[in-house]
Predict the structure.
Amino acid sequence: MGSDTLSAALADLRDRVVATCFPLDLPGAVHARLARRELIEQLDDYVLPRLAVPRAPLLAVVGGSTGAGRSTLVNALVGRALSAVGSVRPTTRVPVLVCRSGDRHWFAADTAIELRLDERVPPGLALLDVPDIDSVSADNRRVAVRLLGAADLWVFVTSAARYADAAPWHLLRLARDRNTRLAIVLNRVPAEPADLVRADFVRLLRQAGLGDVPLYPIVEVEPGAGLPERNVVPIRTWLAERGADPDARAAVVRRTLGGLLHSLDRRVPPLAQAVERQYEAAGRTRDCVDRAYAATARWALRALDDGSLLRGAAGGRWHEGDADGAARGVREGLDALLADAFARGAERSSGCVPYDGAPRLRPGPVVWPGAGEGLALIAAVGGPGMEPGIGREAAGLLGTRIGVGSAARLILDVRRGLRAEFAAALDAERGRRVAAVAVVPGRADVGLIEALDLVRRSA
Amino acid sequence: MTAGGEYLDRFAVRRARQVSETEESARLTARSAALDRAVRLARDRLPGAESAAAEDLLGHVETRLATAGRHTVVALAGATGGGKSSLFNVLTGLRLADTGVRRPTTRTTLACAWDPDGAAPLLDLLGIEPRCRVARHGVLDAVHAGGADVRHGGPGARRGGGMPAGLILLDLPDHDSIDLAHRAEVDALVAVADYIVWVLDPQKYADALLHDRYLRVFRHHARGMTVVLNHADRLPVGDLAACLTDVRALLVADGLAEVRVLATSPETGLGIAELRRVVAGVSGSGEASVARLGADLDALVERLEPYFAGVVPGVEVFAAADRDALVGGLCDAAGVGVVAAAEGERVRTARASSWRRARRPVVRVEPVQVHRAEQAIRRAGATLSRGMPAVWVGGVHRALAEGLRVLPDEVDAALVGAVPQAPPPTRGARVAAGARWIGAVAVIAGLLGVGLAATGVPVARWFGLPVAAWVAFAGLVVGASGAWCGWRAAVGAAERRVVAVEVALRARMADVADRVVVGPGEAEVARYRQACAEFGAAREGDGRAGCHPRE
């Protein structure tokens, strides 16, 4: 592996993954957000640092269920009580890292992890006792899963009571998919039917495709006493073999790192697909809102033309000869029509994805054109529908006042102005609603697949 | 006003059948009936999932109360490896349940009934297979099994009675192994068991699955469960107290502070006697099923709370001021004011100038301006539904939408010919008109006389002026005062006419508004108020209203 080009390609991929977002609550969005976070954490915690410092000691993470006996095991491996053990669960809450003093400089200080030094750690290794993967403490679970993602090898601890629990099997299958170097410790095995338990567990492992993983059973001891060192010799030997010489270490790193890089082929395309789905959903929502407001605008413009504005008070006043009063009535009707159009637009678009922000059901005050020329306004809204008389009468009256030609032009201007006013107001409202739908970059903008291809070529 | 009054009160039927009922179970029945009525009133307004959940639970309440009321189902539930089967064996005095090291051990639920008479329908309801049912007769101490191989004895076992008849003890499978069918079976059974003993153990008592998926969900059922910390003998001696404290702390965090916690061990017998007492007590009282159903109702009430919370309007749903505003808005839309003003003007001109024969025709009412009418109705809808939960606001809007559709035609039909006849002129107006005529005649005669006098014809004189002049002067005075009175009368008549027309048209409009807008809206609000009252009765069991009144 040309590690510089590979590192650069992976860093690029990481940046692009960071740039993705899944704001809309589509089915699968929660899963995508989790997958994104996992991928970023693994690239940051393990892949990129491991490529940068290939000679650092192997990090062996001791993980498993609450109560399985991880901390007891770590204490036995090192030979002294480093991690607190107890009956109150969950016991381990802060991860404990044990390494040789010569390897101290490889590990940066981290307030969240306790660092202990001990020469009895197998050479070329560092042991990390992490919290559990399944207790009520959500923090514990998160930290454990994250640190397991940062490991070169796993020592997975389960017990005779827990070997058939669903929670740890999810992680075991993950390790299998990524070809992570793994050993399993079956702890607290009852003395008598020891072989029954082991055989049943092996059966389950084979069923899950983990038949070739080394399995180390440890017999239950008195509660409260630590594990005698002789019980942990087999697992200790295994660990020592992994970390013994540079070639062995490189083999482990190649395997785990290779597995992770290989898993990118499986994990990045679904993420890209999820990005695409968000983009499409956002587009569909915007289209839905656009269509709703287009229909409302069509309705409003029809109402402007069908003479309904000349009914009621406006028509009454005209028949009394009060042209100014009629024009006033028409303006009130226009206000009502605009408010109505806003309400209808809101109703129609509420079926699309919900948006933030209070709906503005009242439009702001509008000065309608033709405020000076009431007759032109009346003529402009006098449609061919119910009241042919009024519109035509007003047009005729205007024509006698300012000449037929200019009257016609004025009426046309007013009509155009009204339609433009309505269209603009509804468009502004439509814009407000569409803007509330989050802007999601499309697949092409994020470029995940291209970045993945580059990684493949550099590997 | 009840909506949907055609439904049958299923709980009334049950009450009729039941011979005797304890106070608790009567209360349960009353609560269920009230909740049933509330949900029916809210049908088509509640989301589908909530309606379905309510229907399921109320159906289950009815079924369970009708099935084997004397029997109590106690379930041993917990994670794999916790020792449920060992406890089951110790409590039943038999070694029926498989206790092994291979996990998961129990694969199907095992049921032991102490007095199996009448228990069969209940076991069918629970879905227990016949080959997993065991009968344990208390008196005769004989053991019958449905074909299973039975062994007696076992450490700490007690032959014979000790448990009341009517107890059915269940050994459930686990809820956390890789075999997901077990989890499904556990979910089904913990939903219907009357009392649950949660079996924890020192390794797994803090597992997230147990607390998140089960214990926390059962926070209403604190009185229907006991928690045991099993395999207590496997803890170092000094740690047991600390563990128990920790278990209690976790239960408090789950909302189960008042649940009893026991430490048990089937191997050493620790806590077994007390557990036996607890189980016997639960099934001896016979009230466990009612208590469990009551807790289930509590959980459902909490779930449906948002749909019945909110402000309930007082008796007068739609205040007079709001109604006036609605009618005013509709009148504006129809131009009623314009019509009234025009009529007044017409009357004034007609009265004031009685020689103008060309009367203007009666003003007719214009068709209503639709958009302003819609605005008025929307505002009324918002007022009616103020403070109500969103689903009910939607109901009000739907009720008004129909009115919106038919309103223009209704208004136009109502206002046609609604302008009343103008009343004839009053006597005073006629007198004033007469005075004007007389005055006019006198003025003309007087002027003629003055003209004659001016041409030298001798006429009688009064204070130096011809009589005709005086006649003309008098005529002027009479005519002017007649005209002034006539004008005043006409103005008064016009004002009265305006008011009369406006009142008449408004009355017609108010009729339409009541029929088309206010009626349906108030009906919906009344439905909401009734649903709230029923919901409150279901929540408290004593008829207290659930929502608070609007000021």
Chain B touches chain A through 55 residues (CB under 8 Å). Chain B has a mean pLDDT of 82. The longest strand of chain B covers residues 72-78. The two ends of chain B are 23 Å apart (CA to CA).
